Amino acid sequence: MTRKRLLIFDWGNTVMRDLLLPGPMKDWDKVELIPAIEDALKKLYSGYTLCIATSAEHSDTQDMAEALARLDVLDYFHFFFSSFELNSRKPNINFFISILENTGFDAENTISIGDKYDNDIEPAKKLGLKTIFFNEKKLKGDFSEADRIISNMNELHQAVEEIFITN
Questions:
Q1: Which of 12, 80, 147, 150 could bond to 155 as cystine, CB 3.0-4.6 Å?
Q2: Domains, the chain, ordered by start
Q3: pLDDT confidence of residue 166
Q4: How does residue 25 score in pLDDT terms, banded at 50, 70 and 90?
């Protein structure tokens, strides 16, 4: 099956909980997934190309993969990127440009999914990507650049489907 659409997931607090411990997440005594993310990944895996990307200061792509493997979700992702390999950090638009160049996808067939509006949503939208703001904390504000806002990962599959149906 050819997957024609790309989903870019932020790593910390979108896929795995950032517990704010020192050093790389792969070395933490405790790691945990965001609630319902594994079910969401299972639903999305067969129809979409899944990418995970981070600007985490202490982890490169290999570190991220090792942390994901600890919770048995590594195999859901087709691409892995960190600011170390991309030579750019969010919210710099070049972070997203590099991901598109490295994956071969175009902006109109890509969704950025993340918990930081200014890092994950605004720069992606400037590039023409679709966006899903994961607002687990139910923050208040103007989030008009987000195509969809969800507060629970149980809502993710439907939000992705709605974006691609309406566009």
A1: 150
A2: 6-166 (3.40.50.1000)
A3: 66
A4: confident
